[in-house]
Amino acid sequence: MAGDGITAGRQRSRANGSAAAAGGLRVERVWTTEGVHPYDEVEWERRDVVMTNWRDGSINFEQKGVEFPAFWSVNAANIVTTKYFRGAVGTPEREWSLKQLIDRVVSTYRDAGEKHGYFATKADAELFDHELTWMLLHQVFSFNSPVWFNVGTKSPQQVSACFILSVDDSMDSILDWYKEEGLIFKGGSGSGVNLSRIRSSKELLSSGGTASGPVSFMRGADASAGTIKSGGATRRAAKMVILDVDHPDIAEFVTTKAREENKIRALRDAGFDMDLGGADIVSVQYQNANNSVRVSDEFMRAYEEGGQFGLRGRLDGSVIEEVDAKKLFHDIAQAAWECADPGLQYDDTINDWHTNPETGRITASNPCSEYMSLDDSSCNLASLNLMKFLTADGGFEVQKFVKSVEFIITAMEISIAFADFPTEKIGVTTRAYRQLGIGYANIGALLMASGLPYDSEGGRGVAAAITSLMTGTAYRRSAEIAGVVGPYEGYARNAEAHKRVMRKHAAANDEIRSSNVVATAIVKEATKQWQNGIKIGEKNGWRNAQASVLAPTGTIGLMMDCDTTGIEPDLALVKFKKLVGGGSMQIVNQTVPRALRSLGYPEEQVEAIVEHISDHGNVVDAPGLKPEHYAVFDCAMGERAIAPMGHVRMMAAVQPFISGAISKTVNMPESATVEEIENIHYQGWKLGLKALAIYRDNCKVGQPLSVAKKPAAEVAPAAEASPAPVVEKVIEYRPVRKRLPKKRPSETVSFSVGGAEGYLTASSYPDDGLGEVFLKMSKQGSTLAGVMDAFSVAISIGLQYGVPLETFVGKFTNMRFEPAGMTDDPDVRMAASVMDYIFRRLALDFLPYETRADLGIFTAKERATQVQAEAAAEAQAASADLAGMAASAPVSAPVGAANSEAPAPEAEKPVPVSIGSSTELLEVVMGQAADAPLCFTCGTKMRRAGSCYVCEGCGSTSGCS
């Protein structure tokens, strides 16, 4: 079908005298060297990849002798090996070299391009092959994950990461939705759907009964998603559920996840394991989807005016109920304050930038909200690494960027010619409209390295200019391709609307404020690209209905060794770096010294500032650093976190130059109020965003709690011991029983578990260590009483021989059998069994707080006061640091000039053994918990990437890019 469409398009183009007469695209050399294959330009090395679970040390994956360029980091090589190499490990079919991976993908693109007539000559096809290979090899860009999973394999050639489905008001359609989502998750992607066509629970069925409503059908889809790991074992399913603000069930939809979050809190306080991935979290509903409300301009104007807003029936569109717009908007903010859901999508803004309105409205998005297009459609993504275009003197390689966008758009367009799709409906729509999603990563690092604050007019100007240049070039290339193989199938009926949107983009480009020479040069080229693209498009049409999005770039960002993902700023100034041969180091981000040199600091001051950041995790009071330069080093988290509106303003600066939208979450401090969230939602609409989601720190229960920052002496690793001398004699140590004295302190607790009553007597050594327990349940002489007596003796002897109490606690808590249920103990409200209760009670009575914190066992009071305790500890630690600096900080005077070629000081430090990711390292630096889930694969804390999370250890993501 795809081949026929392209052939027909080609014939039409030639008949119209378009660029097809040239016989295909000409390819210019940009990155490669004539006569030298890209693989021959780099040094290759063999490595062993061994991935372990950070928590228990078990090996998750092992492949020895894999081949990568020497300049690829350990992390990038590990992720590519574990995620993207195909074939069973240990078999000859298993890929073992990056060359094989790149060749598998690039050769497929080249062959399809030649087959379908994209290239003028075989020489052009070969040069395209080499240029694409060079760019992938040198981490200039990356395709989205499904390309690496599937292209060139025996699997279906699914290349798209983003899907939008549709659901109608019928049971057949709803069941089709469940099935289609499952197929998409299986292929390694995510999907979104708008449920607003389903009639509300306030409307009648044809049989006379009341409809279930969309929220009830969300339960089934949520349960299905929870059982499917996307891409086999690659990551959890990712999904988006949307409801229009005028749907009669909107109030129920808004509070759905907030109610479940309250349930999670109650169950956690009762002793259940409610962490993400915990044994009991599966009992909670609606946790596998992001929820968003589609708000209209009509609703937002009613909010501004404080008026009423009508909720409309799905069958005839009549108003069923009128609600207070201000109250509903406040309720949305309240729910987001409680659990971060729902987000907002601004319907009229989205459809005002829609190139295909004659075909249908845009009603939904993918899970991360960057792809917005027609129902039953898909989009394949690719992202540029912007740091590859930053020159040593702070300039931007504009022409290389333009040519790189040409290569990538051409490759992405070719992929639709051979791609497979999970459903026929999606295949038909995608082939007819050919939506693409070029984007970028590392804008945060580029701005910092250039000496520009992320939250500044200068930073926003550069970001807007680059985004405009990228999308303008992409559409210009799309128009050129249309001259070779014809415009997209749905272009004719949408031609005027498509041209109108192109003019809107070009007009927005003219409004960019360029405050420096670099931004001015980029805007100048962007203006040229838009003008030429519109001129060529007027003649040829465009090959693609959409061209660009800003995706999370989670796994592929790690593959490209990017410091920052998508449009995000830097997470923090210190990062976690894996080393060849094992181990890890804490280093200051390399963008920091580069930024300092860009700002004119001499090398001696650069070294002193980097050392300060290494010690303190921030730039406050760094020796010699001017306070007016602090903002350059502001990050998403830490001492100087970027204000929420700083994130919103950056999104607003680049949104007019994106075909789709932006995957990004606006982080807000825990102290943020509902009214502040409401204002952020309102400002997102006023500033022209298409979608907006917020996250308030610590609003979700499903995060592992961490204790406050420990003194440096506690977290620093012990000095390496000298090698032990070889001894011939083997000494065998045996445990010695330490009996309790005749007279010892004890206490007895009466308890009730699920209605079964008993007594627990615990005796201690005089130095306050548990040494004996007695359990009494049922009458003396009964079987249960005998078992309890025997169990008590076994535990007591174990304690007296030195078995730590925490070992018993770890083994017997969460053990499940009857009787179980409610207890009469305010600190342990629910117990999975009598054993579970007994050892939780013993832990509370005899274990120190630090040990219990590791086991997740807290008193009711501790749960309520933990956050305050952490804040107090952080303030105390900060005061101590400031006092120390005041007494001993050296004064660095400028000596000599800055040298941009000097090696970057890394200020490397061994990472404490309990840290497994940059997020966990940041927790130590900040002295408080970071809101991030644990990776389902390797157990480390993930870090945010757009509106999703990515694991630095293994590359797993919670999203769809």
Automatic annotation (TrEMBL):
<feature type="region of interest" description="Disordered">
    <location>
        <begin position="1"/>
        <end position="20"/>
    </location>
</feature>
<dbReference type="GO" id="GO:0004748">
    <property type="term" value="F:ribonucleoside-diphosphate reductase activity, thioredoxin disulfide as acceptor"/>
</dbReference>
<dbReference type="Pfam" id="PF02867">
    <property type="entry name" value="Ribonuc_red_lgC"/>
</dbReference>
<comment type="function">
    <text>Catalyzes the reduction of ribonucleotides to deoxyribonucleotides. May function to provide a pool of deoxyribonucleotide precursors for DNA repair during oxygen limitation and/or for immediate growth after restoration of oxygen.</text>
</comment>
<comment type="similarity">
    <text>Belongs to the ribonucleoside diphosphate reductase class-2 family.</text>
</comment>
<dbReference type="InterPro" id="IPR000788">
    <property type="entry name" value="RNR_lg_C"/>
</dbReference>
<feature type="domain" description="Ribonucleotide reductase large subunit C-terminal">
    <location>
        <begin position="160"/>
        <end position="695"/>
    </location>
</feature>
<dbReference type="InterPro" id="IPR050862">
    <property type="entry name" value="RdRp_reductase_class-2"/>
</dbReference>
<feature type="domain" description="Ribonucleotide reductase class II vitamin B12-dependent N-terminal">
    <location>
        <begin position="49"/>
        <end position="139"/>
    </location>
</feature>
<keyword id="KW-1015">Disulfide bond</keyword>
<dbReference type="Pfam" id="PF12637">
    <property type="entry name" value="TSCPD"/>
</dbReference>
<dbReference type="InterPro" id="IPR024434">
    <property type="entry name" value="TSCPD_dom"/>
</dbReference>
<feature type="domain" description="TSCPD">
    <location>
        <begin position="741"/>
        <end position="844"/>
    </location>
</feature>
<dbReference type="InterPro" id="IPR013344">
    <property type="entry name" value="RNR_NrdJ/NrdZ"/>
</dbReference>
<feature type="compositionally biased region" description="Low complexity">
    <location>
        <begin position="8"/>
        <end position="20"/>
    </location>
</feature>
<keyword id="KW-0846">Cobalamin</keyword>
<keyword id="KW-0170">Cobalt</keyword>
<dbReference type="InterPro" id="IPR013678">
    <property type="entry name" value="RNR_2_N"/>
</dbReference>
<protein>
    <recommendedName>
        <fullName>Vitamin B12-dependent ribonucleotide reductase</fullName>
        <ecNumber>1.17.4.1</ecNumber>
    </recommendedName>
</protein>
<keyword id="KW-0560">Oxidoreductase</keyword>
<keyword id="KW-0237">DNA synthesis</keyword>
<dbReference type="Pfam" id="PF08471">
    <property type="entry name" value="Ribonuc_red_2_N"/>
</dbReference>
<keyword id="KW-0547">Nucleotide-binding</keyword>
